[in-house]
Amino acid sequence: MRSTILKRTSRWLGASALALLVGIGGVSTAFVMTGQAATAQVQNAAQITVPQAAQPQAGFADLVEAVKPAVVSILVEAEESPRNVQRRGGDFDFNFPDLPEGHPFHDFFDQFGGQGPRGGQESAPRHYMAAGSGFIISADGYIVTNNHVVEDATKVTVVFDDGTEKVAEIVGTDERTDLAVVKIDGADLPFVNFESDASRVGDWVVAVGNPFGLGGTVTVGVISGSGRNIGGSNYGDFLQIDAAVNTGNSGGPAFNTKGEVVGVNTAIYSPNGGNVGIAFAIPAATVKGIVAQLIDSGTVTRGYLGVGIQDVTRDIADGVGLADAKGAIVSNVAEDGPAGPAGVKSGDIITAVDGDKIDDALDLSRTIAGKAPDSTVELTVWRDGAETKVSVKLGKLNEEALAQAGQGQNPVPPAPLPSETSVGLSLVPNADGSGGLLIQDVKPDSAAAEKGLAVGDAILEVNNTPVNTLEEFEAALDAVKAEGRGTALVKASRDGNDRFIGLPLAAE
Predict the structure, then answer these.
(1) What range defines the domain where residue 478 resides?
(2) How far is CA 424 from the centre of its chain?
(3) Do 67 and 26 belong together in one domain?
(4) Considering 93, 110, 174, 178, which one is annotated as catalytic?
(5) Is 384 a catalytic residue?
(6) Is residue 188 part of a domain?
């Protein structure tokens, strides 16, 4: 057989080309030889045997054969103004290189839900089609996909791996996690399950989906990272995978080697519109909870604490005497939210909820959102250098309540005759009498400038003490130094948004 193959190859490539190929393999006694001579050389070479232990593991064909019938393509008909399909902001997009106006590839790119090469130009509403992916999770036809795949749909068609098509209805969507559930009529349909044990970084993943309309496409990789927070997303606990994911894979599953769904492919990092080995999937643990609520009621309800929060930096931790830079600091408390009446105050650092440690502001947001409205949670709070407990009965999250929680004090235009402080800031009292000091100047080489304080910001508190005059500001700084700390916790406001800053103090 080998002789036959080489003879055919010699007739196709020519003797010289064949000699070069054989020479690369380690037989190079003649630069030009006939197909027959080359065959003799190969036959005389020692055969390499790979030890059993070193042989590669079996492929993923059996796994794919088992799960593929439950993975579907989602075809969407919609009417909307053309838009630049940037699903997650920044570099998380599906853009394509520029093409001449009128090029036929414009229609090719448009069918996948984006205007691609045309840039950000708006035009009159139009009817278009888009393609995504999904997977069946029950024998009676519930299907999981992304919200951004079906959010503008007037008609949703599900296409099976064998080409069968069925029209689906949208059961419910959740914009915050970018998940959706659609339903087709059926019985005894093939379906897949979510993972039973949490996946780990380094585990194999197999992505199956409909990239660029090429349904039933399989790519393989590993989980590259977890807990990823990507720009422009309201949800920040993505799995990062390196299996190739492209436009049209959205809503499709990523499987483990047991054939269980570990995540829903949602976004890619791409500076050029194509796959560069960084994709993001919503983990199964989140998907299960959201999908259950969508199937049950068509909507998702979340707990609401009623506070504005930010991460605890090392400087902030030093400013309040906290050993670890973990938790979420409360920048403001909504007037009608549940946290205020329960005793939560601005400047509190929430380090745990119901005994579970909180790493940062996003972790607290996810934890509270995962609690049921009207349930009571116990917050562990760091306040005035000591730990305390606060019980709060949660409300129900809605966008109006969320906006209220983020409201702060609005600074007014600076007043004249500022007074210079010991930390490189020039301050004036707030002219409208609402309290605080307005920044009129920041020394470029000061710690205040390094921490991002700028002209027009309002200083509201130092060390959780309100400051309305220069004397109060300096006295609060002196109190921090007297306590033996080199960093002051400063509460500032910009454009109505309050935040805390750990401001280093010069050693005396």
Answers:
(1) 419-504
(2) 38
(3) no
(4) 178
(5) no
(6) yes
Residue 464 falls within a domain, yes or no?
yes
User: Is 327 found in the same domain as 257?
Assistant: no
Of 250, 331, 426, 493, catalytic: 250
Domain count, the chain: 4
Give the pLDDT score at 506.
73
Residue 170 has pLDDT above 80, yes or no: yes
Residue 53 within any structural domain of the chain: no
Mean predicted confidence (pLDDT) in 242-261: 92
The rounded distance, in Å, linking the Cα atoms of 461 and 359 is 24
**Which domain-ending residue is among 405, 431, 449?**
405
Same domain, 313 and 438: no
For residues 134-141, average pLDDT: 95
Is 148 an annotated catalytic residue? yes
SS3 56: coil
The DSSP symbol for 298 reads: S
What pairs with residue 494 in β-bridges? 497
Residues 233 and 88 sit within 8 Å (Cβ to Cβ):
yes
28, two tokens: 């190079």
Does residue 52 fall inside a structural domain? no
Say whether both 220 and 310 belong to one domain.
no
In the chain, the amino acid numbered 324 is D
Catalytic residue status for 178: yes
Q: What is the DSSP string of 257-297?
A: TTS-EEEEEEEE--SSSS--S-EEEEEHHHHHHHHHHHHHH
Report yes or no on whether pTM surpasses 0.90.
no
Question: Nearest 10 degrees: CA dihedral of 84, 85, 91, 97?
Answer: -60
How many CA atoms within 13 Å lie on the side-chain side of 409?
Answer: 23
In a 3-state reduction of DSSP, which class is residue 448?
helix
The three-state (H, E, C) secondary structure of 91-151, written as one string: CCCCCCCCCCCCCCHHHHHHCCCCCHHHCCCCCCCEEEEEEEEEEECCCCCEEEEEHHHHC
Which member of 73, 148, 233, 242 is catalytic? 148
8: which residues sit within 8 A by CB, 6+ positions away? none
Burial of 84 (0-12, 13-18, 19+ CB in 10 A): middle
How confident is the model at residue 212, as a pLDDT?
85
Torsion of CA 428, 431, 435, 438, to 10 degrees: -30
Q: Could you tell me the end-to-end alpha-carbon distance of the chain, in angstroms, rounded to an integer?
A: 88
Please compute the mean of the pLDDT values over residues 330-358 and round it to a whole number: 91
CA angle centred on 273, ends 267 and 279, rounded to 5°:
30
